[in-house]
């Protein structure tokens, strides 16, 4: 197929089945067809399955993400120095909400945080579920979320409210029941245009590719993390592979819990449960009542947020700052501010 020809779902599927990758422009066009509701469920399922079997390329992921961003609602704010901690999920391990807790600690440390997230897709409790259980109002408007970010330095953007066009892919995604390119897109489509990110990935073979995609999408600093024991987080049970985007270049390395100054714990020690269970864990960590594995894995990931946000010159010093933020009560107070502010904003809109 000539690059100048208009691509269709059928021609894209044929190209992919023959083992040929889509260009960035073709991928963008395919995602636009999907987002506009012009593709059938069978066509969507066929394209994303063929892409998964071939292996999604940097250009394909970037093209899909750019189209999804164009179809999204946006939160208007200053993007410089703005952090997101959205991960892919899909690890199959029912841990508690580590990135959500880490985002609150990062905000308490002084980083502006625009947290993007959704309800649980594969686990028991997504970021939206646990924040709701904590008492945060998650359905405020983009304008209210921008005000929340401006007032207290953190906001939550409930993905369902910002990506309505994804409804066109909901049936094939659910019926396929496998990980596809859609699992990677949520963390790549922050509605506020955050320029810094800690992104947890379910597939260790893809960390470098996804870090490169973040660079293509205009991010200035990022870490894509995937642990050797299967977490889409920085683990305290095994080494974690990190692909760091810095100064336009990506480098990949491993880091261990011990290198972060933390104890190594069995992965079973960081399991979570229903939203109320995970909310209670976060409350206990912030109150200084929960020590051990739960605190340490939050410190590892919050430390990375603080490093990516530019407040620490190393992951190790980021962990130290995160511990100080918890121990001083600042994390607890930031959560209380988020609950109060979103409650007041939601009340105004009623």
The multimeric state of the shown protein is single chain
The Cα radius of gyration reads 20 Å
CATH C-level name of the largest domain: Alpha Beta
**Main pleated sheet:** 7 strands, mixed
What's the architecture of the largest domain in CATH terms?
3-Layer(aba) Sandwich
| Spatial order of strands in the largest sheet | 3-2-1-4-5-6-7
The fold-level CATH name of the largest domain is Pyrimidine Nucleoside Phosphorylase, Chain A, domain 2
Shape: globular
> Approximately how much helix is present in the residues?
40-55%
Q: What count of domains describes the coordinates? A: 2
Given the helix and strand composition, which structural class is it?
alpha/beta
Topology order in helix (H) and strand (E) letters: HHHHEHEHHEHHHEHEEEHHHH
Number of helices in the DSSP assignment: 15
Features:
350 residues, Transferase, Pyrimidine Nucleoside Phosphorylase, Chain A, domain 3, Pyrimidine Nucleoside Phosphorylase, Chain A, domain 2, 2 domains, 7-stranded mixed β-sheet, globular
């Amino acid at each position: 197929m000539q690059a100048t020809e208009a691509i269709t779902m059928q021609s894209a599927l044929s190209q992919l089945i023959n083992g040929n990758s889509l260009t960035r422009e073709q991928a963008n066009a395919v995602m636009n067809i999907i987002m506009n509701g012009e593709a059938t469920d069978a066509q969507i399922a066929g394209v994303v399955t063929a892409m998964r079997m071939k292996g999604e390329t940097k250009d394909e992921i970037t093209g899909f993400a750019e189209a999804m961003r164009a179809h999204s609602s946006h939160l208007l704010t200053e993007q410089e120095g703005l952090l997101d901690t959205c991960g892919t999920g899909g690890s199959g391990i029912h841990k508690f909400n580590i990135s959500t807790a880490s985002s609150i600690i990062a905000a308490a440390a002084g980083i502006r945080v625009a947290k993007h997230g959704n309800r649980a897709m594969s686990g028991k409790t997504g970021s939206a579920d646990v924040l709701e259980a904590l008492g945060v109002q998650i359905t405020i408007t983009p304008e209210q979320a921008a005000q929340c970010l401006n007032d207290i330095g953190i906001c939550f953007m409930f993905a369902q409210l910002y990506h309505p066009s994804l409804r066109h892919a909901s049936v094939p995604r659910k019926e396929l029941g496998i990980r596809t390119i859609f699992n990677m897109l949520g963390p790549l489509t922050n509605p506020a245009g955050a320029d810094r990110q800690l992104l947890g990935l379910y597939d260790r073979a893809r960390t470098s590719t996804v870090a490169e995609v973040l660079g293509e999408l205009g991010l200035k600093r990022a870490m894509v993390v995937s642990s050797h024991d299967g977490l889409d987080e920085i683990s305290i049970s095994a080494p974690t592979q990190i692909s760091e985007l810095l100064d336009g270049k990506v480098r990949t390395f491993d880091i261990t819990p011990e290198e972060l100054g933390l104890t190594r714990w069995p992965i079973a020690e960081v399991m979570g449960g229903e939203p109320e269970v995970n909310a209670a864990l976060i409350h206990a960590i912030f109150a200084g009542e929960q020590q051990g594995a739960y605190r340490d894995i939050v410190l590892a990931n919050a430390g990375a947020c603080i490093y990516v946000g530019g407040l620490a010159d190393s992951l190790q010093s980021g962990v130290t700052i995160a511990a100080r933020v918890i121990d001083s009560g600042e994390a607890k107070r930031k959560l209380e501010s988020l609950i109060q502010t979103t409650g007041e904003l939601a009340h105004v809109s009623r």
